Amino acid sequence: MDGTNDILRNRFLQGMSHAACTVNIVTTDGPAGRAGVTVSAMASVSADSEKPTLLICVHHLSPAAAMIVENGVLCVNVLRDDQSHISDTFAGRFKDEVNDKFECADWIPSASGAPQLSDPLVAFDCTLLSSEQVGTHHIFLCEVQDLAFARHGSPLIYARRAYGTAMQIDGVRNLKHALTGNGVALKLGCFHAAAPYILPQLIAQMPGIGLHLVEGDQRRLCQALSTGECDLALMYDIDLPDALETDQVTRLTPYVLLPDGHPLASQTEILPQELAGEPMVLLEGQPSRDYFTGLLTAEAVTPNIAYRSTSFEMVRGLVAHGLGYALLVTQPACGMSYDGLRLVSRPLVSSAGDTHLVLARRKGAALPPVAQRFAALSKAHFNEAMAYDEIG
């Protein structure tokens, strides 16, 4: 391959990394034996042929490719977003730990005999119509004989060389339900851990507006701002893209959350070194995960992570039951967990420094009047009510 083709190939791979795909386990069984492989290249061909048809591509070095051809049957199992371990197993990422890839999940035989996951998002039981190799991949044209559906769940998505999940984005038609009679709606994003403790009191000061709210982590909020789903977002000022501009709202000081009665709870402040060896309950997700662990590693303390959760209240509950400490910045008014156990918070003394809650928007974007009003209200609220009282 010459240099020009190498460049085109690399650009093609980079471009395709942005094309989101479902993650599928393609299986077969028959005279050639049983096999399965993780596949992202799967697409509908036609619903209006004699029977519906779909297309999948399998690398020629996969043992499953030749076995599909010989068996003449296959089942395309579309994974749910909580089944990434099945994808990793059939992609060969655990080949040193797993002797039989099929042991990672429960299977039932489909009508064709190809293994079907007992709980896929959807499974297409197929017979093979044709096969052609193009470059490194076999292109299989398949005729769908039967389908199985899950009652719930979202698809596992692969894009930008990482797993993700589908998230509904309300379009203009659905957004109309959030509009008031005069067509005024606040399109607002807020970091999910802080939203329940910050937004209600602010929105209550803007009666009569419609609200389109997106709660999520930094990645989700950046996405919502870039697509125009949100005009404004309350989020942390950590690792924000250059396409956003921000106004600082308040400083956020990290603190240590402890169960009532913990030996460190008797102190007025806590040093990172005093947490060495203590089990940590980590608020998972970005930027929380890296920020909180970074507060410790900056002081040469290795976090002893015992539990992880993306839920703020789950983290608080695990701490309340004595399962570890947590580092947090958002501090609710209530010092109790959901099940009524007392929690204690103490400032963390760290050279890594504070972070800030900011109002972020697309660079150069003009804010609609309702968003300008919310921004002014937010700044005034934090200046008056929390000038000396950290929210986190």
TrEMBL record:
Residues 16-165 form the Flavin reductase like domain. InterPro entries: Flavin_Rdtase-like_dom, LysR_subst-bd, NADH-dep_flavin_reductase, Split_barrel_FMN-bd. Keywords: Oxidoreductase. The keyword Oxidoreductase applies. PANTHER family: FLAVIN REDUCTASE (PTHR30466), FMN REDUCTASE (NADH) RUTF (PTHR30466:SF1). This is LysR substrate-binding domain-containing protein.
